[in-house]
Specification:
three-stranded antiparallel sheet; 17 helices; 51% helix; globular
Length: 396
C-alpha cells in the first residue's frame, strides 16, 4: 500500500479534485435525468395518472436490487404528481414510510397518523392495532382526499409482522370516503414469497421491476454526474469503464459504483495528485470492500456477532459446521450468554452466505465420516483482522 501523505486543509480546498461531494451521492441526479429508467418511469406515470382525474389508482409493487433507482424515481414521480394535482386543484397527500425503521403494523400506522394529524397526540406505542386502524379510517372518512402511501423496504415488515398491513390497505377504500393508493418497494427480489394470495390479488397485478444496471448503463450514470462533482478532465482514462465493469460483476448497483468513484478521488487527494489515475483503482476498491464488510459485521445482532467471531477465530481454511457450533458455544460461555439451538445457528450461516460473508459447500468430513456442510471465509486477510477487532470490541 502506498504511504498516505499528511494533508492540510488547503490541500483539499485550494486543489480539490472532488468539488461537490453531495452531488455525487444525492438521491436525485443533479441533471434530473434517471438514465435507463424510462420504462419504469412511464409505467408509474400511467398507473398513477387516474388520481389527477379523481379516480382510484391501482396499488403498485416495485422491486429490484439495491442501487437501481427504485426509491429515487418513486419520490421524483410523486413530487411531479403533487405539483400537477396542485395545478388542477385535485386534493392529494403523499406519505413516505421506511419500513426498516417501522417494522410493525402499529409503528407504520402511528407514523402515518402523525403525518396526517400532526396536532393530535398519537403514541408510537400504547395503542393496539385495532385502535390505530379505527383512527386511520376515521381520518379518511371525515374528508375527501387522495392519499398515496409509500412503504419502502417493505420486506422488513413482511418478514417481521406478515402482510396484514397490506391486506388492510388493499381493502380500506371500501370503507372510507377518501381514496388510498399504496406503493410498496422492496430490495428483496423474493419478497413475493412473504405475501399471501389474498394480498397478491391487489398488489401483484401492477409490478414494476428495476433490473440491475449493466456496465454501459453504470458508465453513463457516472458520466452524467462527474461534471457536477469533479473538476474538468481529472478522471483518468479508462477509470469509469473499470469501475462500471467491476460493479457489474457484483450487483449492478449505481450507488456502489459512485461510492467506488468517490474512494478513487479520496485516494488521489491523499496522495496529492492533480488527477485521478487508473493506478489508484485497486487501493480504492480495497477500501470499499473493507467498509462494506465492516458495516455488515457491525450491524449483526448479538448472537450472529458471537457466531461470526467463532468463524473468524478458526484458523482452518475449510471449517466443518460442527466445529463452528462448538466454538460458538464456547464464545457464548465466555460472554455469559445462553447459546441458541443448532438449527438457529444453521439459519444464521445461510444468512451469512446470502450476505457474501462466507462460502458454504457440502464436503466429506473425516471426523464425522460422512458428508457435512463446510464453511470457507471469502474476505481478504486484512479485512478479516479489521472485522475480528471490531467484533471483539463489540462483545467486551
Amino acid at each position: 500500500m502506498i504511504n498516505i501523505a499528511l494533508l492540510e486543509f488547503k490541500d483539499t480546498t485550494e486543489n480539490h479534485l472532488l468539488t461537490n461531494q453531495q452531488a455525487l451521492f444525492q438521491l436525485k441526479p443533479p441533471s434530473g435525468r434517471f438514465i435507463h429508467r424510462e420504462k419504469q418511469h412511464n409505467s408509474m406515470i400511467i398507473q398513477l395518472s387516474p388520481i389527477l382525474l379523481n379516480q382510484a389508482a391501482c396499488n403498485l409493487f416495485i422491486y429490484g436490487f439495491p442501487g437501481t433507482g427504485k426509491t429515487a424515481i418513486t419520490l421524483d414521480i410523486i413530487s411531479k404528481l403533487e405539483k400537477e394535482a396542485d395545478k388542477r386543484k385535485v386534493p392529494l397527500r403523499a406519505i413516505y414510510i421506511n419500513c426498516e425503521e417501522n417494522k410493525t403494523d402499529a409503528t407504520i400506522l402511528s407514523s402515518i397518523l402523525k403525518i396526517l394529524s400532526p396536532d393530535k397526540k398519537i403514541p408510537r406505542i400504547g395503542w393496539n392495532r385495532a385502535k390505530l386502524i379505527d383512527e386511520f379510517k376515521e381520518y379518511l372518512s371525515s374528508r375527501w382526499t387522495n392519499l398515496i402511501i409509500v412503504l419502502d423496504e417493505i420486506d422488513h415488515t413482511l418478514k417481521h409482522s406478515g402482510d396484514d398491513i397490506l391486506y388492510m390497505l388493499s381493502r380500506v377504500n371500501d370503507f372510507v370516503r377518501s381514496r388510498v393508493t399504496t406503493i410498496i418497494i422492496s430490495n428483496d427480489v423474493n419478497v413475493a414469497h412473504y405475501i399471501k394470495p389474498r394480498v397478491t390479488s391487489s398488489f401483484g397485478r401492477n409490478k414494476i421491476i428495476f433490473t440491475p444496471y449493466n456496465a454501459e448503463e453504470l458508465y453513463k450514470i457516472m458520466q452524467d454526474r462527474i461534471s457536477y462533482c469533479f473538476k474538468p478532465n481529472v478522471i483518468g482514462q479508462g477509470l469509469l469503464e473499470k469501475i462500471a465493469a467491476t460493479e457489474t460483476t457484483k450487483r449492478g448497483d449505481a450507488r456502489e459504483a459512485l461510492k467506488l468513484l468517490y474512494y478513487c478521488a479520496v485516494v488521489a487527494i491523499e496522495q496529492k495528485l492533480n488527477c485521478i489515475p487508473m493506478s489508484i483503482f485497486e487501493e480504492a476498491l480495497d477500501r470499499v470492500e473493507s467498509e462494506a464488510y465492516s458495516t455488515i459485521v457491525g450491524a449483526l445482532p448479538l448472537h450472529q456477532k458471537i457466531l461470526f467471531l467463532a468463524i473468524l477465530e478458526n484458523n482452518k481454511k475449510v471449517i466443518p459446521t460442527h466445529d463452528i457450533y462448538k466454538d460458538y458455544i464456547n464464545n457464548c460461555q465466555k460472554c455469559k450468554y445462553k447459546p441458541l439451538t443448532d438449527r438457529m445457528v444453521r439459519n444464521f450461516l445461510i444468512y451469512f452466505r446470502e450476505m457474501g460473508l462466507i462460502y458454504a459447500d457440502v464436503g466429506w468430513s473425516k471426523t464425522l465420516k460422512k458428508k457435512s456442510k463446510q464453511i470457507t471465509l471469502i474476505m481478504p486477510e486484512e479485512i478479516k483482522q479489521n472485522c475480528l477487532k471490531r467484533l471483539v470490541e463489540a462483545l467486551q
